Amino acid sequence: MKNNSFTGNLGILVGGGPAPGINGVIAAATIEARRNKLAVYGLQHGYKWLVRESENDFNAHVRELRISDVSRIHFDGGSILFTSRTNPTKVPGGVDNAVKHLKSLGIRYMITIGGDDTAYGAVEISRAAKGEIKFAHVPKTIDNDLPLPNNLPTFGYQTARNLGATLVKNLMEDARTTDRWYIVVAMGRSAGHLGLGIAKSAGATLAIISEEFPQKKKISLESVCDVIEGAILKRRAMGHNHGVVVIAEGVALRLDPKELKKNRSGEFKYDHFGNPLLSEIDLGKIIKSNIERRFEKRGDRRQLVDINIGYVLRCADPIPFDQEYTRDLGYNAVRYLLSKNPRHKQNAMICVDNGKLIPLYFKDIIDPNTKKTAVRLVDTASESYQVARSYMVRLEKRDFEDEAFIHSLAKGSNMNVATFIKRFGYLGK
């Protein structure tokens, strides 16, 4: 592919999992770069072809972008440049190959769209380029777990929560109509923002996130199932035999491996960045089977339905919030790259707060040990979490202090009061 006469060109790539709004960033960046007389090249499939040695393979997966190519794509989910989880540092010569290919296109400016793994790849390539290519990283994840200032959401989160809440609302009506319980697994590898946000918005019966358990300790599968079983029994005592539980998939990563091994077969698989593939851990089914066995042992048949809505949310058409937000991000990524402000010479992650550009410099956000950005967890001490918790159906201290209600709970579980308190009392402490 021949370079044109512009003094510097812009490259754009997308890494990691899809998120609503990717195309909005691509569109806004392309339009602003073209208005500044830059050629724009979209690098397809993330780092996959960029790190290959073959120039022909690389050029076959480069797409020149013009304003006419992107003027309406901000309405659409997915990514016109596709995506991948290729780790440049895991491919022999990958980082050097990337620098060589970018220079062959005359690329002096680079926009990467992705999460912390994609940002890490950008850091390594920029370091090898020795200042000849300037990077701007646009943070993307529906998990909403990147530490943006002032609790800003990551783009795609609002759309994913919106669709997730709609799906859970529909399941709540199905649960009521059919008198059954659903266990819904939502994405959230490191943090429970999405699962909690969906449950809180939809008014689900219960949400379980890893942050509610003591940090730096393994979570017992039994304790997770206790919370859910307790909610089922409490709802029954309240006169209802149905409900919806939303659980963040990241809970699986905190479970004791020995417990997981007893409930599944085979070893975990990992992506190129060393992350366990959570799609290989059927968390909903593991919980469903465990709880059904508990009821069967008491001669009380209770059938649950598990459903994973994770992949359903990632390529949804963005709602207006993310359509607008990603336009701000794409535009400001280009403005940052072209800025002559001495403070803007560094490679940075792009944030926009209250309409203003806030660059977060790579050197300040990447942990040299983990090679990742810090994770923003749900603050379980916040009022926002307390509001969500107050509307959930869970066994609480006051349930065990209400003599009439505790008898109702025990009767509905085919236990006497003493046995029930011994079994579930710790949940009310």
Question: Characteristics of this structure?
Answer:
seven-stranded mixed sheet; Rossmann fold; alpha/beta; 18 helices; 429 residues; 42% helix; four-stranded parallel sheet
Structure description:
β10 and β11 form a beta hairpin. This protein has helices spanning about 20-35, 55-60, 65-70, 95-105, 115-130, 155-180, 195-200, 220-235, 250-255, 255-265, 285-295, 310-315, 320-340, 360-365, 385-390, 395-400, 405-410, 415-425; strands spanning about 10-15, 40-45, 60-65, 105-115, 135-140, 180-185, 205-210, 245-250, 305-310, 350-355, 355-360. The longest helix is centred in the middle third of the chain and has 22 residues, at about 155-180. It is of the alpha/beta class. The protein has 18 helices and 11 strands. The protein has 2 domains: about 10-155 and about 320-365, 3-Layer(aba) Sandwich (Rossmann fold), CATH 3.40.50.450; about 160-315, 3-Layer(aba) Sandwich (Rossmann fold). A 7-stranded mixed sheet has the order 3-2-1-4-5-10-11, with helices on both faces. Strands 7-8-6-9 form a 4-stranded parallel sheet, sandwiched between helices.
